[in-house]
């Protein structure tokens, strides 16, 4: 971060007093929608971000609408006329008092540009613009204000602005003032809770209970185990066929084809049961999700980023739909296959149990951490 440019942007947008009043200064969390900011503060923060960005062209859409007359004059003088002095600035505004300082004016009426030119040219054109400016001056003349203060070069009279803005502007409200009231020491947006590594079986058990998917999971495990058994059977049949003398190729290939076809059927059934499990779980979780969203207080939406809510309703539900059901079935089936394999090996050579125990302990410590 460029500290010098940052401080200039803060001062140009009249944010220095506001920042000093915050509990944590410029480290104060303002939330995604500026929950603890007034309308004027939010507008000036947006303007300060634009100034710090140091772009070549700026489009300012009525940046003085939510601030009082004094702050509006400060923003115009310090920000538009000073900080952005060497930039191309397109300013959309209803504040007539600022028009004498700009290079070119475009007057719009009913969505169409009706006049264009400098301030002096439009004043002498005898059009609606001249009438508007004269009406503004007449309204200001009727107000009581002091003429003792001298107008600095290229500066707009602060008292004149305060009187005229207060009499003519219809958008003046309490939010426009520089508010010194913020929520003390409140963390608006809570950090997302994450767990790394082994999260235990409870989340998966809750998943099955919410979706009422114990039957589907059991069927998925059975079909996955059947697929693994058929794969082993096909390999065993090919090895056995070599040992059997005078076995015909037709019989060898026919049995192998039948076993492979049955394996494909079991794979299809496993995928079907896993998909059904994911669908039931997704419906159950999404119903609870939407119910919570529709019944949540407004504070929840003010303090929770929209991206986090959208993530819950999109990518997180894709995990519920696909990743979790297939993972549960694969893990349980793989565990059964591992136990079966170790049992068969131990029946021939019991010493393999020693190696298996050490291997499982080592795998438990060497597992890759996963963030949930």
UniProtKB/TrEMBL annotation:
Transmembrane segments: 214-239, 251-269, 281-301, 322-342, 348-366
Matches recorded under InterPro entries: ABC1_TM_dom, ABC1_TM_sf, ABC_transporter-like_ATP-bd, ABC_transporter_C-like, P-loop_NTPase
Keywords, alphabetical: ATP-binding, Membrane, Nucleotide-binding, Transmembrane, Transmembrane helix, Transport
Domain ABC transmembrane type-1 residues, every copy: 219-363
Highest taxon, organism lineage: Eukaryota
GO cellular component: membrane
Record GO terms (molecular function): ABC-type transporter activity; ATP binding; ATP hydrolysis activity
Matches recorded under Gene3D superfamilies: ABC transporter type 1, transmembrane domain, P-loop containing nucleotide triphosphate hydrolases
Record-given protein name: ABC transmembrane type-1 domain-containing protein
Protein source organism: Vitis rotundifolia (Muscadine grape)
């Amino acid at each position: 971060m460029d500290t010098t440019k940052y401080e200039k942007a803060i001062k140009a947008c009249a944010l220095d007093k506001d920042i000093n009043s915050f509990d944590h200064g410029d480290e104060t969390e303002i939330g995604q929608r500026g929950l603890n900011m007034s309308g004027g503060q939010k507008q000036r923060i947006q303007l300060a971000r634009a100034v710090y960005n140091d772009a070549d062209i700026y489009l300012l859409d009525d940046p003085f609408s939510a601030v009082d007359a004094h702050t509006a004059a400060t923003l115009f003088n310090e920000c538009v006329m000073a900080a952005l002095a060497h930039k191309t600035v397109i300013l959309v505004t209803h504040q007539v008092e600022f028009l004498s300082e700009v290079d070119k004016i475009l007057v719009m009426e009913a969505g169409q540009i009706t006049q264009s030119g400098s301030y002096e040219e439009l004043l002498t054109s005898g059009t609606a613009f001249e009438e508007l400016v004269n009406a503004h001056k007449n309204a200001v003349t009727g107000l009581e204000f002091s003429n003792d203060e001298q107008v600095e070069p290229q500066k707009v009279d602060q008292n004149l602005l305060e009187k005229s803005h207060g009499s003519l502007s219809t958008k003046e409200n309490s939010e426009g003032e520089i508010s010194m009231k913020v929520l003390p020491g409140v963390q608006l947006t809570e950090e997302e809770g994450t767990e790394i590594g082994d999260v235990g079986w409870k989340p998966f058990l809750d998943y099955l209970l919410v979706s009422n998917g114990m039957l589907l999971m059991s069927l998925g495990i059975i079909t996955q185990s059947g697929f693994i058994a058929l794969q082993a059977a096909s390999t065993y049949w090919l090895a056995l066929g070599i040992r059997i003398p005078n076995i015909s190729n037709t019989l060898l290939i026919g049995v192998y084809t039948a076993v492979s076809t049955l394996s494909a059927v079991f794979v299809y059934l496993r995928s079907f049961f896993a998909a059904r499990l994911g669908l039931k779980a997704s419906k159950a979780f999404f119903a609870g999700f939407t119910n919570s969203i529709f019944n949540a207080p407004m504070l929840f939406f003010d303090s929770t980023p929209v991206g986090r809510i959208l993530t819950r309703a999109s990518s997180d539900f894709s995990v519920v739909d696909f990743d979790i059901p297939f993972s549960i079935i694969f893990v349980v089936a793989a565990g059964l296959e591992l136990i079966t394999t170790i049992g068969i090996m131990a029946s021939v050579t019991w010493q393999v149990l020693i190696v298996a125990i050490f291997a499982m302990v080592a795998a438990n410590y060497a597992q890759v951490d996963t963030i949930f």
